[in-house]
């Protein structure tokens, strides 16, 4: 495949590794994706529109979007706090805390959902305190939000941490010397430099939350119109053998997540380019 | 670079640390403890009874089989793709490394649905396979296929930044001195990437064992046949067998803890953490 190559190296194996990689990506990723696209394109526009503007579908869009947005906001704040504390201070338990942050990526989502629903149930360890304050968490949209923020917690921390580690305290000290208050320093000096990483992390968390299924269905209660997320509705339509409706709804999630994925990549490469001054 | 870590001096710094501990305990530690607490709630005998039930043993076996097929497949693919993307300059290089991120961005349920549409009994491919007596969906092959899909980015994502930063001069030197491509890979590249490879395998395995959404769509949830451990958690929870559900969950949580331990050890033993942003590994 010499037409493809733009620069030559003595290393052999290009044809083999390229052909096998492309074959794998086609078979495993692209064929199933285009299968869904073909399946959806067989529906008429009116049918498609009827499925996605069905009141139950609209309700599930709203629940999913609001919960994912809430979870991403929680993660932006909590993730920022954890990243800050982990990079800036030495204290007993720091290493353990650092390792624990990855727990949501290592713990199967079904397990997370099961234990969170027990934890936040009306008689659960944490749920009883919320209940006493008059807030029901399990089987409400708040529960969905908590499950989503659990599974996507590491994104913000791991996106912000390396950038924060590279920021030397000189700039902050300079700002402080020039009379800035700690608050002003944080918002104008530090946050400005962290913003790209913080946004990337939050966007990744949001994308993950939009598609989260395992953790959510345990705690959501899954009431149609109230606490039914989009992924669950897809699964319900599948169980009814309504493949057309399931595919139409799935295409909405798919387009949303692909737009997020390519958007994040685009913004990231723009920002890094500007960073390096090219 | 000077060490930016410092002992906290002011009360508001301690307050931040306390807030971080509160968040970690409420969001991470308590859920983890509760799994084991609930599993042992009715005593050891109940745990033992659940652990030795045929459903549980079947689920453990199936989960291990799925992981045992998925991990080597994605290990091979990850190495090939990383080699291709980091060792050669060609058109579409960026596109190739973006495409493998798709499984990370996709909802697992949608992934399962895609496979059902393309490889299910109504499709041409599924029809052909059932003609020769192989059922893909609602059976082991389908479950392996979606697990391969969901976990295929991990090894490649760990390897690509590392191999990119290492460069290829040593391999080129080996080739110039007369080594074959295979020898260059085996004796030069592999020793440099072995810890990262292991790290990728650990992540792939954890996700393969724990995958829920995609597998639940294509498994058909046939008791004693197509239930993996995460699916058994849901089934037993649905049946009000709370102790059973939490026992299966405790097994998976133990796996997650071992994963975290290995991950931490591997990160310390290499300088992986400095070389690569981690944000892409859900």
Write down the CATH topology of the domain at 54-223 and 251-275 in chain B.
Answer: MetI-like fold
Largest sheet of chain B: none
Beta content of chain B comes to under 5%
What's the helical proportion of residues of chain A? over 70%
Query: Largest beta sheet of chain A, briefly?
Result: none
The CATH class assignment of the domain at 54-223 and 251-275 in chain B is Mainly Alpha
Class computed from helices, strands and strand pairing of chain A: mainly alpha
Which sequence of SSEs, written as H and E, runs from N to C of chain A? EHHHHHHHHHHHHH
Structural class of chain B: mainly alpha
Beta-strand percentage range of chain A: under 5%
Low-pLDDT runs of chain B = 272-282
Strand segment count of chain B: 1
State the domain count of chain A: 2
Oligomeric description of these chains = heterodimer
Mean pLDDT of chain B: 89
Number of continuous helical runs of chain A: 13
Q: Secondary-structure element sequence of chain B?
A: HHHEHHHHHHHHHHHH
Description:
Chain A is mostly helical and 278 residues long. Chain A folds into two domains: 1-42, no CATH class; 44-276, MetI-like fold. Helices cover 77% and strands 1% of the residues of chain A. Chain A is built from 13 helices and one strand, in the order E-H-H-H-H-H-H-H-H-H-H-H-H-H. Chain A has helices spanning 14-41, 45-52, 55-88, 94-100, 103-106, 109-119, 127-132, 141-166, 170-177, 182-211, 214-220, 230-239, 243-276; one strand at residues 5-7. The longest helix of chain A is centred in the N-terminal third of the chain and has 34 residues, at 55-88. The radius of gyration of chain A is 23 Å and the shape is globular. The model of chain A has no long low-confidence stretch (mean pLDDT 89). Mean pLDDT of chain B is 89; it is low at 272-282. Chain B has a domain at 54-223 and 251-275: Orthogonal Bundle (MetI-like fold). The longest helix of chain B is centred in the N-terminal third of the chain and has 34 residues, at 54-87. Chain B has 282 residues and is mostly helical. Chain B is built from 15 helices and one strand. The chains are: A mainly alpha (278), B mainly alpha (282). At the A-B interface, strand 1, helix 1, helix 3, helix 4 and helix 5 of A face helix 1, helix 3, strand 1, helix 4 and helix 5 of B. Strand 1 (5-7) of chain A pairs antiparallel with strand 1 of chain B, so a sheet runs across the interface.
């Amino acid at each position: 495949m010499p037409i493809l190559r733009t620069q030559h190296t003595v290393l052999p194996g290009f044809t083999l590794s390229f052909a096998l990689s492309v074959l794998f990506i086609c078979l495993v990723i692209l064929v199933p994706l285009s299968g869904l696209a073909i399946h959806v394109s067989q529906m008429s526009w009116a049918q498609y529109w009827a499925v996605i503007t069905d009141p139950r579908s609209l309700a599930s869009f709203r629940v999913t979007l609001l919960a994912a947005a809430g979870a991403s906001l929680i993660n932006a704040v909590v993730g920022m706090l954890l990243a800050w504390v982990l990079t800036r201070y030495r204290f007993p338990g720091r290493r353990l805390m650092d390792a624990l942050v990855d727990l949501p990526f290592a713990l199967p989502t079904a397990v997370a959902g099961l234990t969170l629903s027990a934890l936040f149930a009306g008689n659960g360890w944490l749920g009883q305190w919320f209940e006493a304050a008059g807030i029901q968490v399990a089987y409400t949209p708040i529960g969905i939000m908590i499950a989503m923020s659990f599974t996507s917690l590491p994104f913000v921390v791991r996106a912000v941490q390396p950038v924060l580690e590279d920021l030397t305290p000189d700039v902050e000290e300079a700002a402080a010397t020039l009379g800035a208050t700690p608050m002003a320093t944080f918002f104008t000096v530090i946050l400005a430099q962290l913003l790209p990483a913080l946004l990337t992390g939050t966007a990744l968390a949001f994308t993950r939350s939009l598609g989260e299924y395992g953790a959510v269905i345990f705690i959501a209660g899954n009431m149609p119109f109230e606490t039914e997320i989009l992924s669950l509705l897809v699964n319900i339509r599948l169980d009814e053998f309504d493949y057309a409706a399931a595919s139409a709804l799935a295409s909405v999630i798919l387009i949303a997540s692909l737009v997020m994925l390519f958007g994040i990549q685009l913004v990231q490469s723009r920002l890094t380019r500007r960073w390096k001054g090219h | 670079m000077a060490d930016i870590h410092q002992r906290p001096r002011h009360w508001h710094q301690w307050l931040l640390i306390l807030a971080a501990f509160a968040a970690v305990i409420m969001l991470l530690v308590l859920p983890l403890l509760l799994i084991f607490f609930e599993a042992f709630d009715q005593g050891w005998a109940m745990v033992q009874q659940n652990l030795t039930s045929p459903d549980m043993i079947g689920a453990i076996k199936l989960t291990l089989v799925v992981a045992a097929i998925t991990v080597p497949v994605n290990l091979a693919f990850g190495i090939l793709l990383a080699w291709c993307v980091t060792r050669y300059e060609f058109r579409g290089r960026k596109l190739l490394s973006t495409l493998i991120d798709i499984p990370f961005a996709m909802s697992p349920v949608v992934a399962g649905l895609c496979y059902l549409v393309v490889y299910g009994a109504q499709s041409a491919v599924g029809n052909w396979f059932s003609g020769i007596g192989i059922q893909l969906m609602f059976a082991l092959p389908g479950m392996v296929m979606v697990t391969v899909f969901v976990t295929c980015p991990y090894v490649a994502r760990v390897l690509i930044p590392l191999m990119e930063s290492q460069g290829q001069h040593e391999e080129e030197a080996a080739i110039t001195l007369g080594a074959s491509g295979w020898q260059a890979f085996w004796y030069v590249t592999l020793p440099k990437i072995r810890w990262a490879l292991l790290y990728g395998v650990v992540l792939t395995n954890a996700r393969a064992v724990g995958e829920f959404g995609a597998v639940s769509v294509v498994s058909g949830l046939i008791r004693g046949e197509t239930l993996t451990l995460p699916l058994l958690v849901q089934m037993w929870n649905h049946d009000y067998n709370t102790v059973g559900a939490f026992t299966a969950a405790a097994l998976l949580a133990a796996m997650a803890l071992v994963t975290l331990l290995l991950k931490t050890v591997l990160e310390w033993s290499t300088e992986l953490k400095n070389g690569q942003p981690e944000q892409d590994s859900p």
